[in-house]
Amino acid sequence: MTSATALPERAAIAALLGPARARVLEATRAGASTTELSRSAGISIASASYHASILRAAGLVETRRRGKAVHHLLTRLGASLLAGARAPGHSASRTSRAIWTRLATSNLTRIRET
């Protein structure tokens, strides 16, 4: 990915997820605790935890407990979204459709539960 294409992709992710949630997703790239997410994203620990839970419900992040800490990692889907990568044998539009479908389904389920 060149720097010329990086900005539009980051802007697109921020438009899709919102700026804070996009920063939290980016911060999980190398794995991070909730405290590390909050520092990287410039938000409170409670907000980082909330955004991580939304990203987890969308299938973009997985969370594991390590002692008292909670550690967040990108899933394959989350990494693909950040990288703008295509899965082998899939077109970009098919991959994008899968991501949008996953996010929409997650959001509808969460809305119905409230």
UniProtKB/TrEMBL annotation:
<keyword id="KW-0238">DNA-binding</keyword>
<feature type="domain" description="HTH arsR-type">
    <location>
        <begin position="1"/>
        <end position="94"/>
    </location>
</feature>
<protein>
    <submittedName>
        <fullName>Helix-turn-helix domain-containing protein</fullName>
    </submittedName>
</protein>
<dbReference type="Pfam" id="PF12840">
    <property type="entry name" value="HTH_20"/>
</dbReference>
<keyword id="KW-0804">Transcription</keyword>
<dbReference type="InterPro" id="IPR036388">
    <property type="entry name" value="WH-like_DNA-bd_sf"/>
</dbReference>
<dbReference type="GO" id="GO:0003700">
    <property type="term" value="F:DNA-binding transcription factor activity"/>
</dbReference>
<keyword id="KW-0805">Transcription regulation</keyword>
<dbReference type="InterPro" id="IPR011991">
    <property type="entry name" value="ArsR-like_HTH"/>
</dbReference>
<dbReference type="InterPro" id="IPR001845">
    <property type="entry name" value="HTH_ArsR_DNA-bd_dom"/>
</dbReference>
<dbReference type="InterPro" id="IPR051011">
    <property type="entry name" value="Metal_resp_trans_reg"/>
</dbReference>
<dbReference type="InterPro" id="IPR036390">
    <property type="entry name" value="WH_DNA-bd_sf"/>
</dbReference>
<dbReference type="GO" id="GO:0003677">
    <property type="term" value="F:DNA binding"/>
</dbReference>
